[in-house]
Automatic annotation (TrEMBL):
Keywords: Membrane, Transmembrane, Transmembrane helix. Residues 93-269 form the VWFA domain. The chain crosses the membrane at residues 12-28, 63-84. It comes from Gimesia alba. This is VWFA domain-containing protein. PANTHER family: BLL2463 PROTEIN (PTHR37464:SF1). InterPro entries: Aerotolerance_reg_N (IPR024163), VWF_A (IPR002035), vWFA_dom_sf (IPR036465).
Length: 627
């Protein structure tokens, strides 16, 4: 800090010339009215007045003149706009990025102040110390970047935008904010960017800095205990297994109570003690044939800096049977599923008409894929859009490799499977051609793919390019396991076997009528409008806050979706000291940023005090005059 002041408007010093007329007026001869008095005691005062009013006489001390000179000096100093120099280079255009992610809502155990409140205090101080040639633009950083103000020196506008800033229950995307700032640099010369954050974001950022980044890391908040996962899975007995994961970001062992409520009634409670940085998975079991609402409540016994991750909500769907269509020509699949009581198999004997929609379709003909279903398995044919890339030859082949992480092939061994139909790549065709059309190769043969997977907007499709009945696959142990995986996968797609609590920052997709408009009311009262796609899916809706989202429109009778989980990174409250960019790292500043301190308001206040003193001195009652 340089305590020798600088002056922004030196031309204001010209007003010091007003001292000349002030002093000249002081020496002007006083014109007194003529009065007859019965005493000569005033003659000595008249002589003194004449002596003082002469410009060549000795200067007579006057408190009133001194006050007037000081008043003028401080007014001129105020016009010169002095300031205390910080010693740092002053940026004329300064973007200030403010982290608004969920972790910024964490509180300090002593002051109970959130990290965002602390950031607001520091930015407010910078705004109040702006000099006339400085402009500031405020940018909020959460799941996306939002520019709150243009470059301006209007303190009222800046403070109003800063006051309206709130925490979003989402992770922060620093890269988006830096790209927005880079776009701002095309309209204004930006040398330095300020970034206020608690450091809770990924350490590596894929961005090349065209400016200097001043990373102001805020002091860490207190310890936090939170729910990071809440899901349910239906077991073989028909009951639901409930799984809750708790994590501790504190530096000491923390006891807490976890309670599970079903439709508002407590059904389970457990005491836990989590060590430093530990996580624990709790498991409960409930019985529910009908739709029900679950709530997990975490109650820490010590101070908890972040309360938004202490409750989680989950909806259990109503139990129902899967509707499965199996081509009559594929007897091996029908035989494998005949004893499953959770399925309704179609077509039944002697019937040709089934339900309009299915959960699963297994067919040897592509025409059956025109029916609506969540999961479809094609057996023994090549999809129409792939026939120019893949040919089928009647030759013996086997499996070369397969994707062992695929849910469809979990615990399935395909070694030594003999196949009498061999898919072969057409000339100049490759996997890239299939990927361009949205297909993924799950099983590879010697000369071409054997099993493909494709995710569409409304369904999941699998294609065996050979007829599995013309192979040794149905006679192996892995075949019923594979069919069981397919049923489990279909139940997951239907949401009746495994469900999990919704998390920010995007609402889970819901299905209504195709190409209809819907309104979504957020927990903060904001109204959003969207339109379903041609499959009836409503997706991609931002969920920036924890709470209930109400969907209304045709086919949606004020449906509610409860969003209750934060990103686990936000619950952990981790803080990085260094940001690694493409070329250079940026380390958090060790001290708070020091800005120039304007002094004109202080000088103006002193001038006002001197004006009051002059008024009092001039208006005071002369001595000897009775009241």
């Amino acid at each position: 800090m340089n305590f020798w002041p600088g002056f922004y408007s030196l031309q204001g010093a010209w007003y010091l010339l007003l001292l000349l007329p002030l002093i000249i007026f002081y020496f002007l001869k006083l014109k007194r009215p003529h009065k007859r008095v019965p005493s000569l005691a005033l003659w000595s005062q008249v002589i003194n007045d004449r002596r003082v009013n002469s410009p060549f006489q000795k200067f007579k001390r006057s408190i009133l003149l001194l006050l007037q000179i000081l008043l003028l000096l401080f007014l001129v100093l105020s016009l010169m706009q002095p300031y205390i120099q910080s010693g740092a280079e002053r940026a004329e255009y300064l973007p200030i990025l403010i982290d608004c992610s969920a972790s910024m809502g964490a509180k300090d155990p002593a002051t109970k102040q959130t990290r965002l409140d602390l950031a607001k205090e520091r930015v407010t101080e910078l705004i109040e110390n702006l000099l006339p040639d400085q402009r500031v633009s405020l940018v909020a950083v959460s799941s996306t970047a939002r520019r709150l103000t243009d470059f301006t020196d209007n303190q009222r506008v800046l403070k109003q935008a800063l006051a309206g800033l709130t925490v979003d229950d989402v992770p922060s995307q620093l890269e988006d904010a830096l790209r927005m700032t880079q776009a701002l640099s095309r309209t204004a010369p930006i040398k330095t960017v300020l970034f206020y954050s608690d450091g809770n974001f990924p350490k590596e950022v894929n961005f090349e800095l065209p400016f200097e980044l001043n990373y102001q890391r805020l002091p860490p908040a207190g310890s936090n205990l939170g729910i990071t996962s809440f899901n349910a899975r239906k077991n073989q007995t028909g009951n639901w297994d409930i799984f809750i994961r708790i994590e501790n970001s504190g530096n000491s062992d923390t006891p807490a109570t976890v309670e599970l409520l079903q439709d508002g009634q407590s059904v389970a409670k457990e005491e836990v003690v989590l060590g430093t940085g530990d996580s624990q998975r709790l498991e409960f079991s409930i019985n529910s044939d009908n739709a029900s609402s679950l709530e997990a409540v975490l109650t820490p016994s010590a101070f908890d800096s972040l309360s938004s991750d202490n409750r989680a909500f989950l909806k259990i769907p109503r139990a129902r049977s899967l509707l499965v269509f199996i081509d009559p020509d594929l007897s091996s699949y029908r035989y494998a599923l005949a004893d499953n009581k959770e399925l309704e198999l179609y077509p039944e004997a002697g019937e040709t008409v089934g339900p309009p929609e299915y959960d699963l379709i297994i067919s040897a003909s592509e025409k059956n894929f025109e029916k609506q279903a969540l999961v479809k398995l094609g057996v023994g044919f090549v999809p129409e859009d792939l026939k120019k890339y893949i040919n089928i030859e009647t030759k013996l082949t086997d499996v070369v490799d397969w994707n062992r992480s695929s849910s469809f092939l979990r615990h399935v061994e395909l070694n030594d499977v003999q196949i009498t139909e061999q898919p072969v790549w057409a000339e100049n065709a490759s996997v890239e051609n299939l990927e361009e059309l949205g297909y993924e190769v799950v099983v590879h043969g010697r000369l071409g793919p054997l099993l493909l997977q494709k995710r569409n907007a409304g369904d999941l499709e699998f294609y065996f390019l050979f007829n599995t009945d013309r192979s040794t696959m149905p006679y192996r142990v892995g075949f019923p396991i594979m069919v069981s995986n397919l049923i489990q996968l279909t139940m997951q797609e239907a949401g009746i076997a495994e469900v999990q609590a919704a998390a920010t920052p995007v609402l889970p997709a819901v299905e209504y009528l195709p190409e209809k408009k819907y309104q979504i009311k957020t927990p903060t009262g904001k109204e959003l409008s969207t339109e379903s796609n041609k499959y009836g899916l409503v997706s991609g809706i931002a969920a920036l806050h924890i709470g209930k989202y109400v969907i209304s429109g045709e086919g949606a009778d004020s449906d509610e979706i409860s969003v209750s989980l934060l990103n686990p990174l936000e619950t952990s409250l981790v803080s990085v000291e260094e940001i690694q960019f493409s070329e250079v790292p940026v380390t958090a500043a060790q001290t708070q940023i020091d800005s120039d301190k304007p002094l004109w308001s202080e000088f103006a206040l002193i001038a006002f005090v001197l004006l009051l003193a002059e008024w009092w001195y001039f208006q005071r009652r002369p001595a000897g005059i009775p009241s």
